[in-house]
Amino acid sequence: MAFVDYWSEVQGDFPRMDQALAQRLTQRAWRNIMDLRQWSFNFITNMQWFTPMVINAGTIAATFNTTIVALDATAQAAVLPFVIGNPPFAGPTGVGYQIRLGSLNTGISTPVGPLYSVLAYNASSTVLPFTPPGGGPTVNLTQGQICLDRPYGETTVTGAQYLAYKAYYAPPNNPNTNSAMPATGFFKWTTLRNVAQGYDISGKRLLYTQEQLNRIDPQRAGIQDAYIVAQWGRGTIPGAGDYPIFEAYPHPTSQATTYVGTAMCKWGDLSAGMDIPSMPYALSDLVVTRAKVLGCQWAMTNVGTFPELAGANWVAAQQVYDRDYKEQRIQCIKEDDEINPLTGWTQDGKFDFPLGGEFLQSHDISSLVP
Length: 370
Description:
Layout: H1 3-12, H2 19-34, E1 43-51, E2 60-62, E3 68-71, H3 73-79, E4 98-101, E5 116-121, E6 128-130, E7 139-141, E8 145-148, E9 157-160, E10 162-165, E11 168-169, E12 186-194, E13 199-201, H4 210-216, E14 223-224, E15 228-237, E16 241-249, E17 251-252, E18 257-265, H5 283-301, H6 314-339, H7 357-362
Parallel strand pairs: 14-17
Antiparallel strand pairs: 1-18, 2-3, 2-9, 3-8, 4-5, 4-10, 5-8, 6-7, 11-16, 12-13, 12-18, 15-16
Helix pairs in contact: 1-2, 1-5, 2-5, 5-6
């Protein structure tokens, strides 16, 4: 079956229901079912985070309370290979790089300042007008200039050292939505693996908050390989919607690495190119029956508007559809639990840090020992 089959069946049961309404009710039914529980088809495997190499060649000039900073020629040459890449150097927070500067004007201080997201960068000799995604005045970037996500709040500097890397991550695209954008229906990570270093991030280390990270490291001086994932906030891409943003900690800067994980993601809305997941139970029937329940509610509301609706007992019809929906839901949940039980084995005890041999040999884990 396809989307047209679902809403056509719903429309056929209700006089005077037009195509657009049948489609809306079917979409609403699908969203209702998606919100019922953690279905097995919500789990997406082999989703990837790409952590790029750190960029720190050359220097930067920044002026207090402005959003524009300028790279010197050496820094421009270092950034150029990463302007168009995966991830790109500039983009909405969670998509592009972050940058931090040294705190002194000498150019030799360690870059321990706050992180700023690189929203835009001009690598060409042509002036680039840029309007921030969330609104605000348009800025004209000349060659080698960066637009930050907020005004630079530290002391004006010239010839300052910097670090450019990714600390904030939008979720990868959901392959079930036919979109290359971050997964707007992303719930949470259930596990992330650093295969190169041989360790897993799971359990409470995927559930940190900004408060917890601030207690551990308010300056975010910890850099190397990430073994904690914390909520950071939400971002917006015009035309794509909102998405969650996560902070990886320590900030991954040791090498370019791909973190591979499993996550929970909602499927997108139904369309001609987007069908209900193909499952061994009657998921499509569940959607149609739920849509008919919603259709009965519409019919009862509009009996006085459309005379054709007055000839049926919509209260009794809704009771029948409700009973069928309950029975179908129980059966679908039962079979879905058999496919993917939600209770699994978790490592416990005091030593809950990664135990891979490669990780233990190449990392100082003394700070992780209780």
